[in-house]
Backbone:
DNA sequence: CCTGACGATTCGTGCGGCGAACTATCCCGC
DNA sequence: GCGGGATAGTTCGCCGCACGAATCGTCAGG
């Protein structure tokens, strides 16, 4: 073989395997907060603002019937709330309850820490490059905002 | 006010959102092959060689009781097979059936194509850099081989 | 032998995801 | 106004997924 087993892998395998890694970290962080991955994801999306059910389906890539159940269960835990939209009687706006907001912030922060730790072996410059390249992939493929920017709402712009 | 569409996002958000993206692509590819994500992942792992149940649990990060069901369902579809280990009567070796091997190869190849396409906006040099950085993250965190290298599928999965 | 440790399955529970069918509302054109 | 198609959500039934606890048979060390 011309290619030695020095640990270098292709971009496809790297993407798939890092996905597996982040999935596991995300799920574990959620679990320790008493959430499932899906519920955690729902909270993270709602951190930005309330969403309608259809909007949520589009963002999370779920059928509307799947969403009813997810919101039901999360609502049952007192983390989200359905409010009726005054402009459209059919529609519903799903938003965080105070408790849901607090839990979302905790879960979000802890998950950030853990994902950050995954890249601990990379220096600041490397991280910046990685963020740039992955960010371009995310943008090119129009990935919904299922995870906010860490400093969203805070002026703590950063050197990296 | 949201200044996040200038294209630059942090490394954490980039990782989480690209994970979301790859998850979706993986699941869709699996679905079109009549598989669930988990079954597809199982097939991909078994492309390398047969595994014991416990070994599979460690690789996929699942409890052994979860694995029994997953292997059951996949076996019911004729894609994998349980062989008893001659060295240890208790143990079981799970391997691909011929049909499972063919389907695994198809699913694997198609999934590779689609993931590759996600990075279509990156030039060859950028892809190489991305692969290197993500590869280091994968190595540093000892991610199991849940997805082979594109060119090491054929030689390993021969005998048995 | 006996006694742990080990590999795997079974069982019960709850979550997750889907499509099809349904209800209620909205809005457009007339 | 008023019909009728589009739209927003829910309900229902089905299956897959994941887990812990309990169980069974086997292996190996004393």
Residues:
């Amino acid at each position: 073989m011309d290619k030695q087993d020095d640990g270098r892998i292709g971009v496809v395998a790297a993407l798939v395997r890092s996905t597996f890694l982040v999935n596991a970290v995300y799920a574990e962080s959620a679990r320790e907060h008493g959430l499932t991955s899906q519920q955690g994801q729902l909270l993270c999306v709602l951190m930005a603002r309330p969403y309608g059910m259809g909007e949520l389906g589009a963002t999370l890539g779920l059928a509307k019937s799947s969403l009813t159940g997810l919101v039901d269960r999360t609502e049952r835990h007192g983390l989200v709330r359905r409010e009726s939209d005054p402009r459209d009687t059919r529609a519903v706006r799903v938003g965080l309850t105070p408790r849901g907001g607090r839990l979302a912030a905790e879960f979000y922060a802890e998950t950030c820490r853990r994902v950050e730790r995954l890249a601990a072996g990379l220096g600041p410059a490397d991280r910046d490059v990685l963020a740039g390249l992955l960010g371009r992939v995310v943008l090119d493929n129009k990935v919904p905002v299922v995870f906010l920017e860490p400093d969203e709402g805070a002026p703590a712009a950063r050197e990296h």
User: Anything to note?
Assistant: The first helix of chain B runs from residue 11 to 32. Chain B has one domain: 8-156. Confidence is low (pLDDT under 50) at residues 153-160 of chain B.
